[in-house]
Amino acid sequence: MSFADHHAAYKVSFCNVLMSAVFLIQVFPANCFVPVLHFSPSKQTTQTCTVASSSFARVKVKSDRLMNKLKMSLPNQQSGVSAGSDIAAKFDAINSNRRDISINIGLVDKAGDSPSSRMPWEKKVLFIRHGVTEMNEYLRSVPYGSKDFVDPGMRDTRLTVTGQEQAAELGKAMIEQVETWKENGEGLDLIVSSPLSRALDTAQLIFSGENLKCIPRRVNPLVRERMWLSSDVGTPTSQLRSAYPSWEFGDMEDVWWYTTEDDWQTKEWRSPGRYVCAGEPESVFRKRLTEFKNWLKTREEQRIVVVAHWGVIYALTGLSLRNCQAQEIKLSTLLEQDIFSTD
């Protein structure tokens, strides 16, 4: 091995050691750090800081800067999903004993890219999972799959107070993020939502800011949750049009959720006596998500927000998002990936 090869190997090894050290700092729970870039904790948030907040905040800021430098010095690794970029707005999780909240807008850009090098910039899709619902709360007390589980019959379940607060907090972050995008010559062109009320209500709360109200918004039944529980049975389009007048519904059928009439050969695969609605086969679910990917391919917008559900987002991206967590992915990456199984 030549001297140059030794030198290159030593540089990569040294950088890896430094990255490991920085990683140890970054993986501490968010509640160990003073909020530097995010909102004040809500009234129910448990204060559990165990170190000197101001000192640790300075360490974390320095570690973030060092990590960005190290990423740029190492061989570039292509990735469809990333939490870091020059324009990324990062918001720590809001933790409490009773909540599992994460508000994190992680943008997908290659480390070291400048706005000018991204022009024309790649199309992106920002996925947001809806806030906490009544069914989410029920499933925490009676976990899905447990011997005591029985579908409680909560049709088109609504957001809880916690879910509404989550969406409002993310809305504050979104106002700032949209301004950041504008400063970098980008923008937010279209908001798409599942027709289930929990997704629509989440989207309404997030995009209620003055600089967000003018963004076109469209309901797309292709991103409704996979029919599994009573909470996935929807509300007729005729009623939704009245409840959400600012949304475009197109020619959506009045009954847009899955029924056994959609696939009369369906055989129930779930445990008998525990459910109150027909389950949607994965083959049917995969088919409509493929249709949604094809729909995205035809759109001219550069950045689209999709407010949807755990099953939909996981199947499309392989990402398991918590309630009101946001993650952006390049459209090209989304189109290249296969649909992930949710069985």
TrEMBL record:
Keyword Membrane assigned:
yes
What CDD domains would the database entry show? HP_PGM_like
User: Which Gene3D superfamilies does the entry link to?
Assistant: Phosphoglycerate mutase-like (3.40.50.1240)
Is the keyword Manganese assigned to this protein? no
Tell me any Pfam family this protein matches. Answer: His_Phos_1
Question: Which cellular component appears as one GO term in the record?
Answer: cytoplasm
The protein's GO terms of the molecular function aspect are: phosphatase activity
**Sequence intervals crossing the membrane:** 12-37
Print the keywords alphabetically. Membrane, Transmembrane, Transmembrane helix
Q: Which PANTHER family match?
A: BROAD-SPECIFICITY PHOSPHATASE YOR283W-RELATED, PHOSPHOGLYCERATE MUTASE
Q: What is this protein called?
A: Phosphoglycerate mutase
Identify the species of origin. Guillardia theta
